[in-house]
Amino acid sequence: MPSWKTTGEEGCMEKHQKVLFVDPATGFYRMKRYRIGDYFGPVDLGLHISGRTRSLNIGVGLFAGSIFPGSNRLFVTGFSPCWRGFFISSMGGAGLVFDNLGINMVSLVGRASVPSVLYLNRSHGEEIQIEVDPIDANAIWKTGRGGVYSLLDYVHQRYASRYENDPRILVVGPAARSTDFGAIVSVPISRGKPNFVDTWAGRGGLGSKMLQEHGIAAIIYGGTYLDEDFRDRKVADAWFIEKYRQKLAMKDFEGTTKYRFDPKFDTGGTFGVNYATMGGRVMAFNYRTIRWPEEERVRLHERLILDHYLKQFNEETIKTKQQATCGEPCAALCKKMNGKFKKDYEPYQTLGPLCGIFDQRAAERLNHRGDTSGFDAVSLGGVVAWLMDCLDRGFLSREELGVTKLPRWDHNRFDPVADSLHNAELGTELVDAILERRGILDFSEGIRKWGRIVRNGKRTRVLDYCVYTSFGRKGWMVPNQYWTPGALSPMAIMGKYYMHYGTDFLPPRELGRHCAERLRKELIMDNAGICRFHRAWAEEMMPDVFDSLYGLKDRFLQANAICASRLNSRNSGVFWESELDIDYVSTFLKRKRDVEHDTNPELAHWIERFEKDRKEASLDFWFEIRKGIDESLRDFS
Asked: Which of 1, 47, 275, 600 lies deepest, with the highest CB count within 10 Å?
């Protein structure tokens, strides 16, 4: 066991998390230490710091650099310009190099006067070298590969030679300048060369926060600092054998089957398994499919997804074994590639079938345009599908949206190649129109404010055709792509998996309790710095690891409960504003009864309520979920 192991609370309290505070306006910095036991990881510490300084915090868990699979995730926290509340976003692998700085977190306070690069380097135990260098981000985005990829190349060429080992780079794109849902992207660098396996902290628009509120367009970091990470595999195996009768590697290999290759479905990854098992739960053409008969949805799924979209993926990616990791040793191999294109389910769902695109070449084109611009791809897909729907219905004109095409959304005569390409071309036009604020488009303050302004005179209320969750006056979030009421739950943080997303029917109050429980379990992994793809063991095991190494299992679990409660105390969730939100829930309920033959009397009760008075029923359903959440996350402090 490493020398830093402690056997009780008193020993542990001598250990600290180190946070580097940097003011981009001046380059001034200071280091501050926080005792382990007061705070345990990037979430509870990020919430504490954000509440006092409105900072953007970038950090890792206490087990970064350890032998635990998935422990090198990089977490970004702060008050989101998109959601308007505290938010947590993360990316895989980027924490491995961050650990070489010898700190747990960097916190940005203040704002550089012009877009800048933050340079962080630590070698041979010396202090961290810090520079804040101005750049012409707009000009760089227009060169080379374009957007975020040009900025990655520029920063790598300018600074990488200063590092003894390969550094890691975080950048934003034009979306961070023009909208509130810009993302942060990074790629692993190996032997001096960046690869194509990009990783994203996308949800919540924290890239927009990094640029607009702190003036930072890119961060490059790395070093040679060595700390005593937990590397004792014999000890870890003993823990896992005691709990699971399996060694660590075997338990992790078993738990990540879906993300690698699942022989039950002859495919792998979130894209492969989700589309293989979706059937009549398919969502396409801006959710129009939720109102279709089941037979029609199944036909679309078979013809356009199983026989084309998924078939292409399986032939091009799964059979050729084009898979990689996020930059750390991991058995999941969750990054499914086709050349330079990475295939994840949710981006290729929202910027795929949701936009009327069922061909990989077309989806690659639109996804790459969104990625190059630096958007949160899931949010972008939801917004583009909504705008395409408004064009197709005649609510908004091509001139108003600054585009030249109309969507081809006739599913009965849909050509999976030609029509998908046409819709992808329209989608790329809409991406450019959003960035350049063509016509009446201006999402600088979010889609909800824009949607309210667009409604004037007798014009149709366009927000009724957008599926989103609302938070406060302006906050919004495109939901995770699972047709289930949990995806629209009034949780304090949405767009992640801090909610119940199973497809089973739960009475709304019970659903709220399940959402609260999911939040607590996800916080265990996030605050420990573990990727959720390893949740098959991490949810149960990490509290015991804290106990074995720090003697603080009970305090860790208490702190986790308090953190969940404090997040919920800021919950400004707003009742569903969109008619399509209400349809999303009511059609799910009817499908459970009519297709899956669920005979739960509570289900029959709510369907009858919705048929009698949908507005009143939806309001009661929403508040019942909220009651379950609040009673489960009451203040534990």
From this structure: 275
